[in-house]
Structure formats: structure tokens, C-alpha cells
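Q: C-alpha cells for this one, please.
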Amino acid sequence: MRDLVVALTMSLASAAFAKNAPHTASLSAREIYDVSLALTSGYVFTARGRTVVETHTSCGGTHTVQRSLLDVTYRDGQPIRTDFTIETWESADGRTLRFHVRNTQSGEGTEVHDGVAKLAADGGGQVTFTTKDKSFALPRGTMLPTAFSRAMLEAAQKGHDVDNHLVFQGGGRSALVTAAARIGRLSANRPEAAKDAAGLLKIGGAWPILISYFSNNSELPKSEVATNLYANGLLGSFSLIYPQFTLSAKLMRVERLPSSC
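A: Here is the predicted structure, written as C-alpha cells:
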């Protein structure tokens, strides 16, 4: 059960990284989502929480902070609260990712991962830690979150999908995932009920997108994120789809933040 709740919060983090695209470097923003249970086979009885994502851009890279607070009750009646924070800084060239991950779960204590991922030109690299984790290698072709976000936006603009890529999100070994994206047609009509004083969701339209995450050698995804990807890199409300249940993350508010670049 513990791994399941961590997976939920990591999926929120994965989707939120889609806003960190280089051509949106002038946009720093805060997005607030309310999370609830949309569908279930009965394995999860209730789920409710909130996720806040802040992205701060500068000329040298992107600083992102996400905090997710999630309460889940399983069919056996066991409630679990997860307080998950991931803070990253990724260099503009997509070669360096500094990360701090903190996950506190009721009855399980706190898990922390602090470290740095560095990639060579071929995508191979190394993850080192200042916490107790053991260093490990990243295979050739690995992308960091901003690079994968760039690939999704460029693919959307060209009208095609994104094939499977290894993506390291920041954290322990489980943060290295295989991801792919199916992208629909650009539409100017993607209504959101979120408060948007700066009109950030009214610029440039959005593409419907389905991001799939796969385990090693698996043909079927272990989870998927369905959302709208806006031309400025923001995400609308989204669904987190698992074999036994689906969570809804409703965008409640989006705010422009000051940018240093």
C-alpha cells in the first residue's frame, strides 16, 4: 500500500513537470489542484487531497516545487495520509538535475532523497546522493523532465506522438520511468473553471494528451495521465488512471509569478 500512495504523488509530479518547457521560459506560475476519487473497483474506498505546483524560471534553469497532501482509505478501512514534496532545479541545457524529495506517510515515517543527476551528451549519466541512497547509473537515452516536456510540446506542434523514453524525475531508483505520450489535435476550446486572473489559459489553445508510464518490459502501462497541454506549457485539470481506480485532479487556480529572466 505504501508504494501505491507514493506512486500517486509521483504521477502528480510527473504530470506537473510538463509545464517546464524551454520556450515558456518567461512564464513562472503557480497551479493549484484539488484531488478526488473519480472511479474505483473497490480497492480504494476514498481519496482526497490537494497539490500545489510552483515553477520559477531563470536564464540558467527551472526551479520547481510541488507539494501534495493526499488522504486515501482502502477497502479494509485503513486510512493513509501522505505528505509529499519534490523540489528540483534543472539546468537549461537539460544535463543537470538537483533534487530534494521528502515523503511522509502515516505509520511509515519519513523518506528523504537528496541528490544530483548529471547526463552526458548521449543521455547516459549518474545519480549521486547526499542522503543514504546508493549512487546508480542512468542508461543512454535518459531524459530529464524538462527535456521530455520539450519533446511533448515539439511533438504537439508538429502533430505527432512521443515514443517511449526513459525519464529520470528526481529521487530514488523508482524515479526512473519509461514514458510515452499520445497527443490529439490543437483546440481553442478547452474550458477550465479555474480562477485565472492573468488569463494564462486563454492563450494559444491546448492539446489533449495522454502520458503513459510503463514498468520494465511491460506492454501495458502501469498508470496514465490524461490532461490538456496548453501552448504555454501549463496543464489543465487531469485524470490519474490506474488499473483499479482513477483520480481526478481539478485545476482550481492558476497564477502568474514573477520571473527573473
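A few notes: The helical segments are 2-16, 145-158. Confidence is low (pLDDT under 50) at residues 1-6.
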